[in-house]
Amino acid sequence: MQQFAIPFWKKNPFFRLLAPLVAGIMLQWYAGFAISFLITGFLIIVCAYLLFSLLNLEWKFYLQWLQGLLLHAVIAFFAMVLVWTSDLKHANDWYGHHMNDSSSFLIHIQEPVMEKERSLKTTGHIVAVINRNGLVKVKGRLLLYFAKDTGHQYVQYGDRIIVSKPFQPIRNSGNPGAFNYERYAEFQHLFHQVYLNKADLRKLPGDEKNLFMSFIYNARAYIIRTLRKYIQGSRQEKGIAEALLIGYKEDLDKDLVQAYSNAGVVHIIAISGLHLGLIYVMLTWLMDKIPFIRKSKAARVCLLLACLWLFSILTGASASVLRSAVMFTCIVIGKNYFVQSTVYNSLATSAFLLLCYNPYLLWDVGFQLSYLALLGIVALQQPIYRLLYCRNKWVEKTWSLVSVTLAAQVSAFPLCLYYFHQFPNFFLLTNLLAVPLSTIILFAEIILVAISGIDVPAFFIGKITGYMIWLMNGLMTSLNRLPFAVWDNIYAGIHTTWVLYVLVFAVSSWLINKSKRAFYISAFCMFLFTSIHVFERMKIWQQAGVVVYNIPKSRAIDFIYRDTYHFVGDSMLEHEGLLKNFHLNPSRLSFHLSAKSDSLPVLYRNGNMVWFCGKKILLLDTALNVERRQEKIRLDLLVISRNATVKIKPLLETFNPALVVLDASNSLWKIAQWKRECITLALPCFSIPERGAYVLNIEK
Fold this sequence. Notes:
Largest sheet: 9 strands, mixed
Structural class: alpha+beta
Mean pLDDT: 86
Number of helices: 25
């Protein structure tokens, strides 16, 4: 009897539904269609889909492809409407539609106040805008920063305050290749921020607290106090303990986080599906030991899901944790009440539900990486595992962990290259050491919190846990110091990332299924990948330019020639720790720069004057004696830094600049003063703090 293979999309129907949902979300975000067009299109497609049912059976059979196409169109239009409605600025009661320069705001503090290096930070819900015409109820969120002298006791979760200070829009730095913080904040429904001294706000009597969220915040605070009390060791150990259990990252040491990232195990200290999976295994084991729960299916399901979701909310409900929580919910319900579906379908179902809840999760890095890693594990772990046969029990378990790590790495590394531009060369070794050790630490911390009321055993477990964290930190930092531990400064663009993914999946299919077609596709992708890099290399050989960076209170200028750069600015910015901190490194990666040079063949500098690729540039950071000249010196660029004691009008007695650039090392009041002078003199002016980094591209 002939057997027929069931196509993948029939066994996993939610994959077919997920594709138009993702397409609709992306199309609406980048195209921005009007709501009238979206609703009209949605209604027409729905009507067409319903009319299809009126056809006779013969026509339904011949046009079944049309039915599928209409269903996909319905989902795509639904996704587009979802994106439009998710944009808070489209709501009539968004606070931005009602505020002006003289507005006051009634703000409800939504989260506990966190202490930062120079300020206190939290988020607030804008309840009302108070104008001359009265009070208007609105909605929206903003970032609140308080001066340190305000104090935790003065502003707390649940308080209501009145603020009259104007809000500042959240903006990007504008530095080339920099993280798009403005878009990230917009996805969190955050558009403005404000810095408040104690005199800038008026606190109203009473408070408004959500009972459930109060329980969550109090539970987090209790866990943090418990870990700080009983975990023995330095702040590094306590910071890792807090991040590992509940995702609290305020006490993490930045250098230690960088070491974990370089080692390829940063997922351990970023609450992810791994943690929820371990909690799921532990809960399942516990419930099998309790007779009443073991016999009652309903009690088992309810208790299991309640614990999983409580842990997810307690840890901050990141995208990767939400993905795991939704997926485990589908698995638990399906396993107990329905025919168990495939893991692929459970993954697609969880992604579909999460994107319906928040379509902006599609751009969340954690969301993308967690799904890709799990897809890789499901698809590639078993083929990799079957490559070796191990008789010894412990060797077999080690190889099983290696196969999981390899499968996850294969599917996630192109996206990691795109976002982080580095590859951990020792990821296999570090995961073999860190994953089992972090699992033991996680369970030890859970036990510690559970028995925290009993001092003696809690002290003993806390001491052992602190030692294990110290050991894990030591291993990661030691491995990070080894030569070639990390391959960094890797350039990866959007096109190379897509080609690399097609290459990875084609090679995997070729090796697993022995498919000739997959081999030809992989060969073509390799050729295309190489061609793109050759083309990019040719572009690098032709590039030259100047970048004046937007780094608060800092002077930073790069003169770029081919794949090298000459830096002028504050020497502290070239420190390795700050270089990794979203300022200079992303820009240099975007320009494919690989080496720093103290001198470039096309650059000559004499004091404040710079000649670069035929351009004449004056860099002013101090006072300058000028004299009237009959023939003024023509400048392509005049860059003023560090609150130089100069005025624009006297400078024009000597120089004729095409553009004046005021960088971020200047005070805002000083920049405003210079701008007024430039406007009066009809001189083009570019303010770095207001408009972002300035980039001058020079044609060679």
